[in-house]
Write a structure and sequence with these properties.
The protein is an alpha+beta fold. It has two domains: 222 residues, no CATH class; 119 residues, 2-Layer Sandwich (Alpha-Beta Plaits). The strands form four sheets. Strands 4-3-6-7 form a four-stranded mixed sheet. The radius of gyration is 23 Å and the shape is globular. The chain starts with a helix and ends with a helix.
């Protein structure tokens, strides 16, 4: 219990605590720098990784996040908070890796009612003051090799470890704003939504293919790939989206506080310096998919596509989405190209960029005939 109380009060951010706690080491014996030169010097490897992710998470967006607005009575526990924390904690799996404060979900689950009350008090204070422990803003990043050249950082997957207490907090926020964000989503988006499934979209595409074949209509489908979508979306665009969609200001304020000064530490044989995170939603954070899909919905709202796409039951269907996986549909190759161009233009306004090399277009035999003319 003492360990939990220390983490709740101090966020576990003091260096002395971090030195005593095992965070984990990952070996990387050689790495290629920007100039293509390979180094085996361990300190230099850490520096190359730090510079790579510093560039990745930098932003050209000049919009500053809003100044914190505070509320009164920070010691009052919001009605129902204890029960909300209990429900959120019950939904957390055991055995998951902890953040730098080393507090695990197992530890929280085993402490019972007393920790629920302390968490509820902490979360209420965070919401009403608009402040969170500084260590909540830092992510520990472990690099896992995917495939290909193991000396190229692009072939590594960054795995983020966030404070479990922090993730519990945003899980509570997510449950509160879910209804508002769901209301603003269109039927084309099936990602991370109750009652929706990627299977539904696959079935729809299969039906479209069959109907176009049956009625001798050309069909073009573009499968859009964004470059590092979740890591690229601009935070200011996300926050403006939340305001546009009617999310209560108290939750926007606390999210702006979380992302203001957000950092990451790369762990190899030693820790890198803290890297400022200027864009992207946080990995392994319950609320992140909701933030991303809400922002993407704003992109599609800005497109004048009411008369574009294919007609299904008297209505136009221009796209199907599962989070950042997008399929654009049309009966015309020229129209599809226009849609890709317009989507890329609007997407760039929120920090997203279509990867044209990985974006693929599929068409049926009638579409192929049209394309060959």
């Amino acid at each position: 219990m003492e360990r939990i109380e220390h983490a709740l009060k101090n966020g576990g951010s003091v260096k002395a605590v971090k030195r005593k706690l095992w965070i984990g080491k990952r070996q990387m014996y050689a790495l290629r720098n920007k100039e293509g030169k390979i180094t085996t010097n361990m300190d230099r490897i850490v520096k190359i990784a730090e510079e790579f992710y510093r560039d990745l998470y930098s932003s050209r967006d000049n919009h500053n996040l809003n100044t914190i607005k505070t509320s009164s009575n920070p010691d009052d526990t919001l009605p129902g908070m204890i029960e909300e924390v209990r429900k959120a904690l019950e939904g957390m799996h055991r055995g998951k890796a902890a953040g730098e404060d080393r507090v695990t979900s197992d530890l929280l689950k085993d402490e019972g009612q007393i920790v629920l009350e302390k968490l509820a008090t902490l979360f209420t204070r965070c919401l009403l003051t608009g402040k969170v422990p500084e260590s909540w803003k830092n992510a520990i990043i472990i690099l896992i090799h995917k495939k290909g050249d193991d000396k190229d950082l692009k072939n590594y997957r960054p795995i983020s470890l966030l404070s479990v207490v922090y993730k519990l907090f945003t899980k509570v926020i997510a449950s509160r704003v879910k209804k508002t964000l769901e209301f603003n989503q269109s039927k084309e988006q099936a990602g991370f939504r109750t009652g929706y499934s990627t299977i539904d979209h696959i079935h729809t595409i299969n039906q479209v293919i069959e109907k176009c074949s049956e009625y001798n209509q050309p069909l073009y489908i573009a499968f859009i790939d964004y470059e590092k979508a979740f890591d690229s979306v601009e935070i200011s665009a996300v926050m403006q989206t939340l305001r546009n969609q009617g999310v209560d200001e108290i939750y926007i304020n606390i999210l702006e506080e979380i992302y203001r000064g957000s950092t990451a530490t790369i762990v190899l044989y030693k820790e890198s310096n803290r890297i400022p995170i200027k864009k992207g939603v946080r990995q392994v954070d319950t609320i992140s998919p909701m933030l991303f899909t809400a922002c993407l919905q704003e992109v599609f709202r800005s497109l004048d596509w009411e008369q574009l796409g294919i007609r299904v039951n008297g209505e136009y269907l221009s796209n199907l989405r599962f989070a950042d996986d997008i399929a654009l549909l049309s009966n015309s190759g020229d129209e599809l190209q226009l849609m890709i161009t317009e989507l890329d233009k609007e997407s760039r306004k929120v920090g997203l960029k279509i990867n044209l090399q990985k974006t693929k277009v599929m068409y049926n035999n009638l579409g192929k005939s049209s394309a060959s003319r």
